[in-house]
Amino acid sequence: MEAPKDFDDIRPGTTSEFGSFKVEEADIVDFARKFDPQSFHLDHEAARKSLFGGLAASGWHTAAMMMRMLVDHTLSPETSLGSPGVDELRWLKPVRPGDVLSVRMTILETTPSRSKPDRGVVRSLVEVLNQDRDVVMTVKTMVMVRRRPAAG
Fold it and tell me: What is the DSSP letter of 24?
């Protein structure tokens, strides 16, 4: 999918799917070691005894993989102006070594800025899917996007 060029090209109700990110065991452990050193992200035996029943990626790692797919497939470097935050982040199922993740994104609303007419805010529901099409994570995102210059 080609990223929309600017705010005025984005339509509420539009859904797109993109990305393919293979989750490697070494990356799960490396991320956990650096940022979320809980035993069920680091050690097979401890993970087997946990409520996850096996090694699972950190939810923050899953969010980082989602972000990579968003940058690669939807966020235009010319028009994306950053984000004021996210809402309703949910981790629904464990992400395992060998999973292949993708993203389904639905545009919820577009709101032109009243104070800065050169931009608007796009709110989206982002769902991260595994290879079985199970939703493993959801988040509602907000992104500031540059508008087309006014004619005249």
Answer: P
Query: Could you tell me the two tokens for 122?
Result: 């796009």
Element (H, E) at 138: strand 135-146
Q: Name the nearest CA neighbour of 138 among 113, 98, 108.
A: 108
Domain annotation for the chain: domains and CATH numbers: 7-23+59-146 (3.10.129.10)
Average model confidence (pLDDT) across the chain: 93
pLDDT tens by residue, 90-105:
999 999 999 999 999 9
pLDDT digits (tens, 9 = 90+) for 22-62: 999 999 999 999 999 989 999 999 999 998 999 999 999 99
| Closest CA relative to residue 66, chosen from 43, 42, 90, 40 | 90
Which residues, in sequence order, are bridge partners of residue 26?
A: none
